[in-house]
Amino acid sequence: MTTAAAAVYDPQLPGGAPAVAASARQVTKSYGAGETRVTALDAVDVDIQRGRFTAIMGPSGSGKSTLMHCLAGLDTVTEGRIWIGETEITGLKDKQLTRLRRDKIGFIFQAFNLLPTLNALENITLPMDIAGRKPDQAWLDRVVETVGLSDRLRHRPTQLSGGQQQRVAVARALAARPEIIFGDEPTGNLDSRSGAEVLSFLRRSVDELGQTIVMVTHDPVAAGYADRVLFLADGVMVDEMHAPTADSVLERMRRFDGKRTS
Ligand SMILES: Nc1ncnc2c1ncn2[C@@H]1O[C@H](COP(=O)(O)OP(=O)(O)OP(=O)(O)O)[C@@H](O)[C@H]1O
Ligand SMILES: [Mg+2]
Questions:
Q1: What domain range is 220 assigned to?
Q2: Which one of 78, 82, 101, 128 is at 20 to 30 Å from 88 when CA atoms are compared?
Q3: 260 near 59, Cβ under 8 Å?
Q4: Quick check: is 29 in a domain?
Q5: How far is the CA of 249 from the centre of ligand 1 (A)?
Q6: For residue 204, is pLDDT > 50?
Q7: Given ligand 1 and candidates 64, 216, 237, which is best to mutate, with the most ligand atoms within 8 Å of its CB?
Q8: Residue from 65, 234, 253, 260 to probe ligand 1 pocket by mutation (most atoms less than 8 Å from CB)
Q9: pTM
Q10: For ligand 1, is residue 60 a contact (CB within 6 Å)?
């Protein structure tokens, strides 16, 4: 941890754990150059609270995925600094960043990123297998049961529906109990019932296990499961809402005048 990093942290939680699981300071991300240059993020400051469920919303193209990818160390920033816990990741060498992602971060991608040659169970335990960690069997059973995959564990991704594949991806992120989980529309491909099950499970993993979750979503109902919603527009953090409900989120989205929200 650098001395400069210390300045960005909020007071500590009781017990001494840092209250912030991830932070961005003045993060700008540009793509391309000259006339085709796009500023996807423009001087964004954000703190993601530990043990909380944070949703990121905003119109299509507003920079939600870009912000999440930068926070998770999947993409580099053009300017600014990012911390995961107490570790500044901007400036880390590839090898260190890979190890940090492997040990501390879980991902739920929109395109599930499952390995086609592995069955559901093997996909779920893959990150731990790679890290040489043994899964906690009781926890693994609970995760698998909650996402409703107990009878599909030996199936390969091509033998699963889209929703089932997404549930494998959710189980994979939760199974290793990472410090922080990032999900880019993790319930975007699910019917409302499977989506609600997954969201309740994410909610419980925050409430009962202190998991930290950051979720990009277009869905006010999904955002209603979060503790806090951050609103992006044109690469700028424009608003936030605590204790959101589906209705209050919908109301806020309507104020994105004339802009598409999905
Ligand atoms: N690799 C890239 N090269 C050039 N421009 C990009 C690239 N990735 C994203 N962008 C641009 O950056 C902006 C933000 O994109 P981003 O994917 O973060 O949006 P988003 O809020 O996640 O949108 P959506 O809701 O549609 O997923 C967009 O204008 C997009 O066109
Ligand atoms: Mg996106």
A1: 50-73+93-261
A2: 128
A3: yes
A4: no
A5: 22
A6: yes
A7: 64
A8: 65
A9: 0.85
A10: yes
Average of per-residue pLDDT across 194-201? 84
Cβ distance 187 to 222 under 8 Å? Answer: yes
**Rg of the chain, C-alpha, whole Å:** 18
In a domain, 4, yes or no: no
**Does ligand 1 have an atom closer than 6 angstroms to the CB of 76?**
no
CB-CB contact of 170 with 163 (8 Å): no
Residue 12 lies in a domain: no
Q: Is 38 in the pocket of ligand 1 (CB under 6 A)?
A: yes
Distance from the alpha carbon of residue 13 to the mean position of ligand 1, in angstroms: 35
Amino acid at 239: D
CB of 18 within 6 A of ligand 1: the answer is no
Q: How many domains does the chain have?
A: 1
Which helix (DSSP H) or strand (DSSP E) does residue 53 occupy? Answer: strand 53-57
Residues lying with their CB under 5 A of ligand 2, a single-atom ion = 65
Compute the average pLDDT of residues 98-121.
Answer: 88
Q: Say which CATH number the domain at 201 has.
A: 3.40.50.300
Which residue carries 């992006």 as its tokens? Answer: 232
Share of the chain above pLDDT 70, in %: 90
CB 211 within 8 A of CB 51: yes
CA distance 120 to 32: 38
Q: Which helix (H) or strand (E) holds 20?
A: strand 20-31
Give the model's pLDDT for residue 15: 55
Nearest atom within ligand 1 for CA of residue 69:
18
DSSP string of 235-253?
TEEEEEEES--HHHHHHHH
**Is 60 exceeded by the pLDDT of residue 3?**
no
Cα–Cα nearest to 99, from 124, 135, 48, 133: 133
User: CA-CA distance, 185 to 220, in Å (whole number)?
Assistant: 12
In a domain, residue 229? The reply is yes
